[in-house]
Design goal:
This protein is α/β, with parallel strands linked by helices. It has helices spanning about 5-50, 120-125, 170-175, 205-240; strands at about 55, 70-75, 85-90, 95-105, 110-120, 135-140, 155, 160-165, 180-185. The chain has a domain at about 50-185. The chain is about 40% helix and about 25% strand. Strand 4 and strand 5 (about 110-120) form a beta hairpin. Helix 1 (about 5-50) packs antiparallel against helix 4.
Length: about 240
């Protein structure tokens, strides 16, 4: 391969890498901007329904319509199926969020209740807990997303309560032997049945998403400017 061919191959590689880098940065910015729009819409929906509570006496036709709504349910918790959502930090302490299946009064659905946070030491008291009476509870309902599975859903399978890494509704349904609704209800912290509520609807605000989008797009713009400068300098050197 002569020098011209090598030089041309190198230029093609540099140009290809440059284009891919710009496209990645633009895509990341667009993704963050889209996430920001979604979070802003979510905030509006939550504000709209903030002062209303929906009585959920039977399974709804569409669980998606209740996402992030305040709900009130009557039914029985199934403490034998208690699970511990692992690696939850509160005030510098590592602990769990306590998750319990809850059967609606008419037995039309079983949802998961997030009772709140307990320390690793406090979790021991849940081993012998038995609650069989019917009760009315209230909280915020949301539809969890599994996301990327880096580890098994269930971390400890040899005893109850089970320790779980995240919400995998299908996997947890198989473990519990019931068909779980695709919803989790986070209990209000003032209920006797609740522990410390640490769950939040989302971690990042829309403004932060927009800020990250601007950063990615800004980097893409810098690369574009650099590309134009490199192009004109190359042309100038060629003419010279």
């Amino acid at each position: 391969m002569n020098i011209k061919c090598r030089k041309r191959s190198l230029q093609l590689w540099v140009i290809s890498t440059y284009i891919i880098a710009v496209l990645i940065l633009v895509s990341l910015g667009t993704w963050q901007f889209t996430r920001g729009i979604h979070k802003a819409e979510l905030e509006k929906e939550m504000e709209m329904f903030a002062d209303s509570t929906m009585d959920l006496q039977t399974a709804p036709e569409d669980w998606n319509a209740l996402n992030y709504r305040e709900v009130r349910l009557t039914g029985k918790p199934q403490t034998a199926g208690t699970m511990l959502l692992d690696s939850r930090i509160y005030q510098g302490q590592v602990g769990y969020e306590v998750i319990v299946p809850f059967v609606l009064q008419d037995q039309s659905a079983t949802v998961l209740l997030n009772r709140g946070w307990v320390s690793r030491e406090q979790a021991g008291m849940l081993e012998n807990e038995e609650i069989n009476e019917e009760m009315e509870i209230a909280g915020q309902l949301y539809l969890p997303k599994t996301g990327m599975k880096l580890v098994d859903t269930i971390l400890e399978k040899d005893q109850w309560p089970r320790v779980i890494a995240y919400f995998d509704i299908q996997g947890l349904s198989g473990e519990l032997g019931v068909s779980l609704a695709p919803a989790v209800v986070v209990l209000d912290s003032d209920l006797d049945y609740a522990f410390e509520r640490i769950w939040q609807p989302y971690v990042m605000s829309p403004i932060r998403h927009y800020g990250y989008a601007a950063q990615w797009w800004g980097l893409a713009l810098v690369l574009l400017v650099f590309g134009w400068v490199w192009k004109f300098r190359s042309q100038g050197q060629g003419h010279g």
